[in-house]
């Protein structure tokens, strides 16, 4: 049970740093919708979403190489070599990126102020992701968790200063984001145990190792952007800027699922790497995945229960229609998270080329599907393309990773949970105009069935929480 306890303990530590911060970010959505118009919110959302696409190409996902190579390494000189080589590559990447930005800056077509914000966002977020991941790889989980709290508190304070008090609009939004990344990076540098960068430890062998590992991961980390933002641009092109603003708000609701997934994935990566060579890894990975999908279906189902209520009472009236976009977006996030779970098996096995292949196929299917569903079926179906892309990626990875580690799935249970969630989606599509009370009651009935199916997991969770409370 030690490995299960370690996974749980790491999850709790990361939860302390992530839950509070993610909840605050979600609570900021009404603030953004109040102080930004749907058009302005659509602009800044496109800018930050483009940042998410470009970031893996600047960092070359070297943070994942740092995590994989450093996590079980005891030799401090080797750790310094991995970190120094990765940072050197990123410095070269920064130089190339700066030249490209200067070229675009002198092209009159581009909004120069937004281009400058974009450049600063890329620079500070690149530093933050490398430094914070290195902190986690060193086993400093509590300091890593504290970093998440500090970053979001800075974001919160800056939003109130620049958006509410100074009423700076999109400028205030972007300045707040930049400062949150910058302060987080400075914190990581301060709490690290010594200085890990050394030019003398940069060598061709290490450079080759980290690049061969990290480069195939770029499409995987661009997958969410490619799927989600192909949707954004198709919505923008066929349905208009206002619809894109609605989509920007609707896409924040699935963040509730990502909130739990981010915490778990951080802990799961460490456990998956450490237990990869154990004799009972198949049983361990299978049991973890079962509890994983049960929990996520619970969260996703509950989101559809409260979805319409949230948009009725917590979101500005101008964004109310966005609630209809949420169901398919939540389903797509479910299968994205299932795919990410299996992707960890690839990285544990250093099979990052398989990550590339499955991500590329899934992204292609999602993008092509968007051009069919969105123009012809409208706003309610904006997430269908992403659903198809992530589902096929998950199915491919499930089949392929069984050659490495056989993941046993209880097919009947998994099918019924999917079926119930699809019925919840159909309720939103078929009865969009039914009263809030009757709509919520129908969704709640289906959620209760999900509770019954996952009662074994819920019982285990309650026992675990009771033990944690007693320890505290």
From TrEMBL:
State the membrane topology: Multi-pass membrane protein
Does the record carry Lipid biosynthesis as a key word? no
> A Gene Ontology CC term for this entry?
plasma membrane
The portions of this protein that span the membrane are 12-32, 52-71, 83-107, 113-131, 143-166, 172-197, 209-227, 291-316, 328-348, 355-375, 381-400, 412-432, 444-465
Concerning InterPro entries, the annotation shows:
Poly_Biosynth_Transport, Polysacc_synth
Signal peptide per UniProt: none
Subcellular localization, as worded in the UniProt entry? Cell membrane
**Entry keyword set:** Cell membrane, Membrane, Transmembrane, Transmembrane helix
Q: Which domain of life is it from?
A: Bacteria
Q: Could you tell me which PANTHER family the record lists for this protein?
A: O-ANTIGEN TRANSPORTER-RELATED, PST FAMILY PREDICTED COLANIC ACID TRANSPORTER
Name-wise, this protein is Putative O-antigen transporter
Supply the source organism for this entry.
Pluralibacter gergoviae (Enterobacter gergoviae)
């Amino acid at each position: 049970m030690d490995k299960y306890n370690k996974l749980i303990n790491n999850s709790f530590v990361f939860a302390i740093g992530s839950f509070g911060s993610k909840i605050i970010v979600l609570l900021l959505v009404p603030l953004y919708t109040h102080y930004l118009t749907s058009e302005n919110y659509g602009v800044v959302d496109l800018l930050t979403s483009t940042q998410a696409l470009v970031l893996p190409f600047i960092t070359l996902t070297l943070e994942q190489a740092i995590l994989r190579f450093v996590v079980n390494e005891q030799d401090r000189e080797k750790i310094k070599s991995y970190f120094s080589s990765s940072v050197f590559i990123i410095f070269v990447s920064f130089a190339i990126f700066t030249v490209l930005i200067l070229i675009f800056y002198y092209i009159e077509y581009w909004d120069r102020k937004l281009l400058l914000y974009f450049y600063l966002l890329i620079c500070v977020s690149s530093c933050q992701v490398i430094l914070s991941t290195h902190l986690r790889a060193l086993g400093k989980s509590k300091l890593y968790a504290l970093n998440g709290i500090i970053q979001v508190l800075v974001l919160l304070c800056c939003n109130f200063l620049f958006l509410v008090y100074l009423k700076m609009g999109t400028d205030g939004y972007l300045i707040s984001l930049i400062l949150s990344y910058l302060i987080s990076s400075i914190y990581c540098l301060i709490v690290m145990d010594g200085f890990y960068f050394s030019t003398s430890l940069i060598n061709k062998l290490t450079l080759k190792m980290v690049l061969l590992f990290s480069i195939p991961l770029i499409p995987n980390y661009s997958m969410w952007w490619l799927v989600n933002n192909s949707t954004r641009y198709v919505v923008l092109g066929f349905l208009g800027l206002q619809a894109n603003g609605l989509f920007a708000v609707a896409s924040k609701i699935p963040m509730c699922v990502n909130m739990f997934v981010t915490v778990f994935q951080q802990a799961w990566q460490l456990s998956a790497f450490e237990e990869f060579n154990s004799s009972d890894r198949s049983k361990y990975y299978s049991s973890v995945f079962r509890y994983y999908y049960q929990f996520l279906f619970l969260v996703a189902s509950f989101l559809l229960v409260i979805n319409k209520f949230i948009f009725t009472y917590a979101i500005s009236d101008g964004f109310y229609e966005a609630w209809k976009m949420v169901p398919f977006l939540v389903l797509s996030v479910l299968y994205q998270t299932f795919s990410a779970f299996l992707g960890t098996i690839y990285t544990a096995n250093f099979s990052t080329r398989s990550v590339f292949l499955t991500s590329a196929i899934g992204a292609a299917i999602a993008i092509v599907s968007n051009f069919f569903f969105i123009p012809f079926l409208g706003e309610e179906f904006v997430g269908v393309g992403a659903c198809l892309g992530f589902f096929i990626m998950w199915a491919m990875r499930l089949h392929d990773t069984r050659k490495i580690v056989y993941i046993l799935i209880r097919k009947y249970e998994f099918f019924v949970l999917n079926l119930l969630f699809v019925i919840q989606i159909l309720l939103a599509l078929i009865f969009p105009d039914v009263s809030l009370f009757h709509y919520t009651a129908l969704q709640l009935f289906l959620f209760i069935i999900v509770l019954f199916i996952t009662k074994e997991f819920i019982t285990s969770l309650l026992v675990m929480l009771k033990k944690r409370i007693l320890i505290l």
